Structure formats: structure tokens, C-alpha cells
Amino acid sequence: MVHAAPLITTIVSGLVLAFVLGALADRFRISPLVGYLLAGVLVGPFTPGFVADQGLARQLAEIGVILLMFGVGLHFSLKDLLAVRWIAIPGAAIQILLITPMGMGLAWFLGWSAGAGLVFGLSLAVASTVVVLRVLEQKRLVDGDAGRIAIGWLIVEDVAMVIALVLLPVSIGLLKTEGAASAALLPLSEMLLPLGITLAKIAAFVGIMLLIGRRIIPWILHHIAHTGSRELFRLAILAIALGVAYGSAELFGVSFALGAFFAGMILSESELSQQAAAESLPLRDAFAVLFFVSVGMLFDPWILVDDPWAVVATVLIIVVAKPAMAVAIGVAFRLPAEVTLIIAGTRAQIGEFSFILAGLGLSLGLLPEHGRDLVLAGAMLSILVNPIFFAVTARLRPRFERPAAIEDGPPDRAPALTVSALEDHTVVIGSGRVGSLLGEALRQAGRTFLVIEDRRERIEQLREEGIETIIGNAASPEVLAAANLGKARQLFIAIPNGFEAGQIAEQARALNPSLEIVARAHSDAEVEHLDSHGADLVIMGEREIARAMIERALDAALPAADRERALPRMESA
Ligand code: AMP
Predict the structure, then answer these.
(1) Does residue 356 sit in the same domain as residue 430?
(2) How much is the average pLDDT of 362-372?
(3) How many domains does the chain have?
């Protein structure tokens, strides 16, 4: 019965194993990525036991790419994209032009044809969208300079890939008849037409999205929101993301990723639809995990035994030459050292684009199977070491920068934070709509306080105002410890997520039994949760809003005491 349902089996086995191994990896303080990849290897065809459907896994991963790129588009405006073109276009071009010959060199050394070398080199030159986006999102860098540049770079690479995929089959004659100068001229002229058509299609796609999509998509959402059905609204978002991606791939030959990115970018113009859309994408993370599982499935561990030196050389090109070149480009374009290092980190891997290229190369008879296996091994190993790369550069970064622990960025855990010297102080967690007003009031009252916040831009603003800050997720023990809570007087947890707030309250209570903890909640369940986790006072946002509205409604009509009484009545209704 189960064997008749390969899609379900693939999703379930992939997610369950990824979860178990990811949690296990986390337990040993390694990136959960390692667990996801390993889960893939285990359900893959190269290890004994159960084998999931590789083709299905790859398609599921593609849905992950679509949703991720859609989500990224939501953070991006056309202006942002154009603002980074000065580095994204030359950066991607230089990297492709210089890394490809390195791959060709290795291919030549391995005795392959020039065509095989070209496909192999191109596969090593491009980076994986999923890996880049995951890192940027996790470290909350999407909105920063480094994030914008890295994403702009990805988009350029994406366009280059679309062109390469079209031109490869056309140029096959040239690539197979190596060295024949006369043959070179003919296919070159033959290549111009498909190149022109491809570029025209991409331009038509972008034009249509900007001129028509920009009106129609928000219009659809507006009307769906009017129906009052949340289910329909979420469905609309999903349909737009997947529909535009698929439709644009079918009609214009652009990649799924590019289509989804543009769909998201169009929605990003209205902040409201952007937020609404972002909320309705919880599926994204699950599919991104399946991407890593599908990479693991493709990996044949035997290649490490069969041809270790070729694997080492491939991996070195990916994890040493590529980031080194990105650093050189960053220096040449005078990017700040911190931004350069982040971008270098995002370059040090390969993924889905490379698989597509290698697959095409194989089907055209250009790339030997061994070449594809090397690309797969290179992807697996480079993705595996990518978190280490970021850990190392996070250590390096302060050397280039002012000596502030904050510059380390908000890593997942264990940031090298120095413990605050403040005593008898107030700690405010979150500096958004609620926390920023509170902080401002504390500042005006001349209180000693510090702010914990995980958005880098916000932290920078606060620091410019001279306010002591700690960057990071306040639910992490290291971040809380850095706030010197043991010596603090009051703690205000001004974040909207009740579960995180509960975690924070519990840890804070353990650190300081006499601390006054005031928390924010948005539902009765959250109030109860926070109460039981050590908060002294829980302020429920919606109740306060109701209070203000009641006040307004009954303003002159009722004495204050009656207004107060009106509130509990309303709540129990
Ligand atoms: P708002 O809902 O507008 O008051 O914004 C809440 C603020 O809290 C945002 O600036 C978030 O970046 C920040 N925030 C949310 N969760 C955490 C957390 N666990 N640690 C630190 N800051 C957080």
C-alpha cells in the first residue's frame, strides 16, 4: 500500500529523517544542515535500505526554491535590485569568466573534452540559491547591504544560467569539434539567434511583470482580502507564487526561481500585502529542507574512495577559489570588509543550478558521468562546510572592523558577546512598534537601560542614538546572559511571539528571582503561558487596544470607574 504512494513516502521519509538527524546534529552543536544532507544520503540509492524517489525529491526541492525566491522577492523592490547592479553584474560576470576556466583546467587534467570542461567549469561557477537564501535569512542579512548584493548577484547568475542552458545545446557542434577554427565561426553566428530570442523572452517577461503583473497581482489580492476568507487569501498567495513561477518558466523560458522572485517583488511594493504574503509562507522552510535531502540523495559516497584527488580539487575550487575571488572583487569595488566576507561566504558552495547544468551536459553527451558525480560530490561537501565558513569569517570580521562584539552579527547561537556592565538597570527586548516607544520613554526619563534586538538595522539606529544594545535572539541563553540580568531591576519582553517570550521569561527568572518581568501577549493562551513561565505582569495588546477604544466610545458618557468595569464584561463575551 505504502509503496504505491511514492510522493507521500518521499515527503514523509525525507522530512521525518531530516527532522531526526537535524535535531541530532543540533544536539551536537553542528548545523542541522548536516543532518538534512545525511538524511538524504540515507534515503538515497547509494546506501543500503530504503530508497526514496530521487526525481520526486528533486521536484519537491524545486518547489522549495520557488517559495524561497518568492519570499526573497517580498523583501526586494525594483529599486533595491537596480541599486546593486554596479556590483552584482560585474561580480557575477567576472566570477563566471574566471572560475569556468579553472574548472576547464581540472577537466583537461582529467582528460575530458573542452565541452565537458565548459559544462563542468560553469557548474562550479554558480552558487545555490537555496543555500545563499537560507544563510541570509538565518543570519537576518536579507535586508542589509550584503544581503542585497548577494541576492542581486544571484539574480544575475540566474539570468546567465538561463542563457547558458539555451546556448549549450546550440553550441554543441562547436564544443565537440574542438579546435577547428572554421567550425567556430559558423556555430557562433548560429548562436546569435537563440541568444537574441532568449534575451528578448527575458525582457518580455520582465516587462510584462512590471507593466501588467504590477497592476493585476495586487488587484487580485485586494479583492480576495475583501472576501474575508483567510483560507482564500493564503491560497491566492500560494497560487500567485507557484503560478507565476511555473507560467513564466513555460511561456518565457526563464527559471522558476526568477519568475517567483518577480512575483514576490511586485507584492513588496505594498507593505501590507508583503506582510500578509510573508505570513502565509510557512511551507517554505519545509520544502527548503527537502532541497538538502534531495542533494544528499544524489551524493554517491563511493566517489570519495574512487577518485579522492579529483574531489579534493573540485571542492578546493568551490570553497577556496570562489570565495577568494569574491574577496578580490569586494576589495576592487571597495566594499566594507564585513560585507565582502559575507558575500564570499555565500559564494563558497554550489547547488541546484550546477545539477541542472551537469544534467544537461550529460544528456547532450558533453559531460562524462564521472563529471556529474564530481559536481554532486562538490555540492554536497561545499554545502556541508558552508556553516564552518561563516563561523570562521564571523571570527575574522571584528579584526577588520571596530572592536565591537556586536559586529559579529546575529549568529544562531553562541555569539561572542561581552556582558553588560550596567547594574540596577532595565532591559527591553525587542525594539519594534512596542519596544521602541518604551525605549524612547526610558531615555527621556534618563533611566539606565539596554535593548536586545535581532534586527541589525534597528540595532544600528539605536547605537547611533547612543543606546546600549545587544544583537541576537533574546531566547538564546548567551544573549540573555550578556544583558547582565542577574543585576537588573526590570525586564520588558516587548516581542510578539508568545512562545519565545515564555522561553525568555523562564530563563530570566532562573537568572534573577527578584527581577520584575513584564511581558507582552496577544491572546489569553499567551497570557497564561507567560504567567506560568515567570512573568510578573503580562500586558495583553488587544485588551489595551479595547481599553482605549472603550474609553473613546464611552468618553464623556461614563465615569472612569464604569469604563474600567466595561472591559472585563467585554472580554468574557
Ligand atoms: P513589534 O512587533 O513591531 O513590536 O516588533 C518586535 C521587535 O522585536 C522587532 O523589531 C523584532 O526584530 C524584535 N524581536 C522579535 N523577536 C525577538 C527575539 N526573540 N529577540 C530579539 N528581538 C526580537
Answers:
(1) no
(2) 90
(3) 2
